[in-house]
User: What shape does this take?
Amino acid sequence: MADTRAHGSTAVATDGGTAAGPALLEVQDLTSSYGAVRALDGVSLRADTGRITAVLGANGAGKTTLLRTVSGLVRSSSGRVVLDGEDITSASVESMVGRGMAHVPEGRGVIAELTVHENLRVGALFRGKVEKSEYDRIYDLFPRIAERRDQPAHVLSGGERQMLVIGRALLAQPRILLLDEPSLGLAPRIVAQIFGLLRRLVDSEGLSVLLVEQNARSALSVADVGVVLNLGRVVVTDSARTLMADEDLRHAYLGF
Ligand code: ATP
Assistant: This one.
C-alpha cells in the first residue's frame, strides 16, 4: 500500500506526484455538513495547473459535497478554500467564474429546448463579447457537437450532452474545471474519448481539472494524482500510477 496514507483525516502527501510550490487550488482542513450529517470531515488537497486531480471513493464518500463546497454552493463549517493564493472560502458562487473556476455538476444539465449553440452561448453569458473563434475552438474539440449545433439539446445522447456541458464550461475560460462524475452511465468508448480530450486540454493549455469519479479505474488512467475519500475523510493522496498499482487500496476503496 502507498506509504502516504493519511494518519487522521487531513494528510496530504508531499511526494507521489503532488507538485511542489504554490497550488492553484488548495483545500485546507475543510468540513461541511448537511444538518447532522457531516459530509466532509477535515479534507485537505491541492489541484495544480497542468494536472488532473482525481477525487475517488464510494457512494456517499463526500465527493460531490467537496466540489459543491469548493465552488461555494455549500458553506463549510470550518477550513479554507484558497485559489491562486486568495482565500475564497466565503466568496459567492456567482463570483467563481470571474475567478477562473468552472463547475460542471453531475447530471449534464442542458436546456433541452435550446439548440446546442444556444446552450454554448449560456456558458459565455458572464463574459463580454465572445469571439466566433472561441466557439469554433469548442466545435473543433467536440466535432460531434459541431455536427448538431443547430439541433435542440434534447436530441443529444448522454455522451454528447456531457461534451456540451464541458464545452459550455470551457467558454467561461476557466483556469480550473471542477467535473462531477462525467463518466456516469456512458459507454467506455465515450468515457475514453472525453477523458482523452481532457488530458489534451490540460497538457496543451495548462488547465487544472479536479475530477470527481466513482469510475476509479478510468479516472486513474487519465489523472496525475488521486485523492481517495471515505466517509468524508481523505484516506490517501498519491500519484495515480501508485494508487493504480495498490491492489489492497483498490479492493478496499475503489471497487476494482
Ligand atoms: P455519490 O456519488 O453517491 O453522490 P458522493 O461521494 O458524491 O456520493 P456526497 O453526495 O457528497 O457523496 O454525500 C456525502 C454524504 O452527505 C452522504 O452521507 C450523503 O447521504 C450526504 N448528503 C449529500 N447531500 C445531502 C443533502 N442534500 N442533504 C443531506 N445529506 C446529504
About this structure: Residues 23-106+175-254 form a domain with the Rossmann fold fold (CATH 3.40.50.300). Residues 34, 37, 39, 57, 59-65, 214 surround adenosine-5'-triphosphate (CB under 6 Å). Strands lie at 25-34, 37-47, 52-56, 78-83, 86-87, 101-104, 176-180, 208-213, 225-230, 233-239. Residues 1-16 have pLDDT under 50 and may be disordered.
